[in-house]
UniProtKB/TrEMBL annotation:
Pfam entry (one): Aminotran_5
Domain called Aminotransferase class V: residue spans: 46-263, 323-420
Record key words, sorted: Lyase, Pyridoxal phosphate
Native source species: Phaeovulum vinaykumarii
Signal peptide (from-to): none
Protein name: Selenocysteine lyase/Cysteine desulfurase
Gene3D superfamilies linked: Aspartate Aminotransferase, domain 1 (3.90.1150.10), Type I PLP-dependent aspartate aminotransferase-like (Major domain) (3.40.640.10)
Recorded GO MF terms: lyase activity
Length: 430
């Protein structure tokens, strides 16, 4: 099973829209009910990589489904028709924003479950002697299922990070592809502890040139702006809606060429619709329908900040650029502060360019104690291995001790960044 070797530059289409106003934080935060809920009073959310706040558009759709449409969808009754239509809407609108065909997008219970099912399909579809490349920069969800294929005779090849920096160098991938036996390359767009954004289009092109497909874990990157999967060229792209302002669902893109080659994993009679082939369990109807609220949110931000644009792919690209620019602005003072804290080892790049605002720190103090001390000062964060034991071990960090992770999104305020820095300073002697 080999990939089409057509190469893609990975260029995003221009958003083609003039900005009406600079980033409007007040407008953005007004889209998230959590910011006005008493439960969050006095707390700043800095564990967004584990799950973001949910936008009102998603909450409204979920409530509406459970109150007005809670019946098996696609039946003749009006609530059933409305529920099915909203599920179809979610798939169509998100696929359009991701730059893929509607049937190439499917929903599952989580990205972990989606990857597991996909691995079973590949295991049955690979020929004897085939090889799979997996990195040690990944969250375990995009590592473990592929690694277990080695027990079934698949040649597993590890693409290793730099132990000092966690950097995943494309130059180190080339030798792993040289003999032409690799059929799949699995890697993250962005690690959930290293934070560096990998050059996806370049890596995908390398995989395709070697006759392999590419599976990209976008869980830690999609919350910072939906990617243009069509431009990146990835054959599989996975992300979690619950970390992307939405419900607890995994979103999986499988391009048609690959989906047609892999064996069906669903009921035998669901083998024709591509979006059903790799979801053996019935989807959560309400959460799939509510995922259309993610598209609503993107469109609301675009309408507020940009001139009208009819193409959803271009709207998503413009909003992604807006989010990422704001996040780089927020990161700058925090990274400057951390540069003066030798007792807090930062994993990944030390500048905002080329990284996501997911900052894992290796403190001299106990990470759990530091997280508790920060929580007492209004900073909601966590200390753990974050299911990233392999990259931590590769960088000489004891996963049992873990790291302190500070992760934020475009809706974080400068005042919250200031509060975080003040809390870190107050706990310096911990």
């Amino acid at each position: 099973m080999q990939a089409d070797t057509t190469m893609n530059t990975g260029a995003r289409p221009s958003d083609g829209a003039a900005m009406l106003r600079p980033f409007d934080l007040a407008f953005v935060r007004a889209q998230f009910p959590a910011f006005s809920d008493p439960a969050w009073a006095g707390l700043a959310h800095f564990e967004n990589a584990g799950g973001s706040h949910v936008c009102a558009q998603v909450i409204d759709r979920l409530t509406r489904f459970y109150t007005a449409r809670k019946i098996q969808p696609y039946g003749p009754a009006a609530p059933s028709q409305a529920g099915g239509a909203e599920m179809d809407e979610a798939r169509a609108r998100l696929a359009a924003m991701l730059g893929v065909e509607t049937d190439e997008l499917s929903f599952g219970p989580s990205s972990t479950a989606n990857t597991y099912v996909l691995a079973q399909a590949f295991l049955r579809g690979l020929e004897p002697g085939a090889a799979v490349v997996v990195s040690d920069q990944d969250h375990e969800a995009n590592s473990g299922p592929w690694r277990r294929m080695e027990y079934e005779g698949i040649d597993l090849r590890e693409w290793s990070v730099d132990p000092a920096t966690g950097h995943l160098d494309p130059a180190d991938l080339a030798p792993l592809l040289a003999d032409g036996r690799v059929r799949l390359v699995c890697f993250p767009q962005c690690s959930n502890v290293v934070g560096e954004v990998n050059p996806v289009a370049q890596i995908v092109a390398m995989a395709h040139e070697a006759g392999a497909f590419a599976c990209v874990d976008g869980v830690s990157h999609a919350p910072h702006g939906l990617p243009d999967v069509g431009a990146l060229g990835a054959d599989v792209y996975l992300f979690s809606a619950y970390k992307t302002w939405g419900p607890h669902q995994g979103v999986m893109v499988i391009r048609r060429e690959l989906g047609a080659k892999l064996p069906n994993q669903a009921h035998w009679f669901n083998d024709r619709p591509l979006y059903k082939r790799f979801t053996p369990a019935g989807p959560d109807h309400a959460q799939v329908a509510a995922a259309a609220g993610i598209a609503d949110y993107i469109d609301a931000l675009h309408a507020h900040h940009f001139a009208p644009e009819p193409d959803p792919r271009r709207r998503a690209a413009a909003v992604a650029g807006l989010m990422q620019a704001q996040e780089r602005t927020l990161m700058a003072p925090l990274l400057d502060y951390l540069a003066g804290r030798p007792d807090l080892r930062l994993l990944g790049p030390a500048r905002p360019e080329g990284r996501a605002p997911t900052l894992a720190l290796v403190p001299q103090a106990d990470p759990q104690a530091l997280a508790a001390a920060l929580a007492a000062r209004g900073i909601a964060c966590a200390a753990s291995d974050f299911y990233a034991r392999r990259p931590l071990e590769a960088m000489g960090i004891d996963p049992a001790r873990g790291v302190l992770r500070l992760s934020f999104l475009h809706y974080t305020s400068p005042a919250e960044i200031d509060a975080l820095i003040a809390a870190l300073e107050a706990t310096r002697r911990l």
